[in-house]
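Troubleshooting entry. The earlier prediction with pyridoxal-5'-phosphate gave an output that would not parse, so I re-checked the input for stray whitespace and re-submitted. Clean input:
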Amino acid sequence: MTLPYGRQSIDQSDVEAVAAALTSDWLTTGPRVADFEADIAAIAGAPAVTVTNGTTALHTAYAAAGVGPGDEVVTTPMTFVATASTAMLHGATILFADVEDDTANIDPASVETLVSEKTRAIGAVDYAGHPADYDALRKIAERVDAVVIGDAAHAIGSTFHGRPVGTLADLTTFSFFPTKNLTTAEGGAVASTRPDLLDRARTFRNIGMVRDRDQLRHPDEGGWYYEVQGFGLNYRLPDVLCALGSSQLRRLSAFKGRRQQLTARYDRLLADVPGLRLPVQRDGVDPMRHLYPVRVLDGRRREVYDRLRAEGILVQVNYIPVYWHPMFEDLGYRRGMCPVAEAFYAEELSLPLFYDLTDTDQDRVVEALRNILGG
Ligand SMILES: *Cc1c(COP(=O)(O)O)cnc(C)c1O
């Protein structure tokens, strides 16, 4: 039997929630959207709007931040390409800051050297579920009048000194892809403590349609009237999927507990395996552990990846440094730019970690690693 690095957990309560939505009057943009958004807000600590996935959440967040041609966005290369590409789709230029050696999160010291009056946004990622150093990032952002965007695709449910992810950045994005911490099949959300930013996010995900009377430029023509004052896209998440999302959120603390349990178990069982460096957790962080990213030392990552995969243990590598993609190369970005991120990439391996992973499954992963590395 194969063990993926991540997968969804769907139980009977999830099935029933979706079935109830399917047989209701609404398939999309009904009451379950607002309900799911309220449920996300309760976890994230800030009001939220749902969107179709984590990629469109980022596209929407950059739109809300007003990112456009001539602007610069400083972000991390240790992420999925969408963290950078969606800002570029708005016409922005990306500057890649290097990451911290311990967390693989964007390094504020590196950000410091890249910001200027052109910086419109600083984009952090809560790698593996461990919140980035937002207090330091916000200080830098305030100085140059930039917005901090947190890509929390890995981190819904995480807290930093008791403050939930959702309150740490100006705008926070989530993904509900099946391998993430909860799923709506495809789905995502943008949260913000700033009503102006959230309002812009809400308008962007609904084609740019403005109905609020206070915001109309011309007199209200009647009940049908709306205005488009800036273009947006249809990024609405359907009711049917929001029903699944609310049902999954009711299970979130169980998801978090099991992920933490499995993390502690990996920490213990792998402590004496040679040639491995285990992930760390900084003081004050209570993470929703999305990934368990080990570092395989001595140039053996490729070998360990191939041998585990051959045994049906479907480990993953997160991530290829974003600027290694040919799209960036064509724009003049060169390898070697962020050495800490590249060293991390060269050794990183994400071990299976998901809610339904059993202790026996996990023992199998540990045994397989021992067989390869010794100890
Ligand atoms: C998954 C992910 C995304 C994209 O989310 P999708 O829902 O797959 O579009 C963006 N950023 C990070 C860090 C992710 O892990």
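This one parsed fine. DSSP finds 13 helices and 17 strands in the chain.
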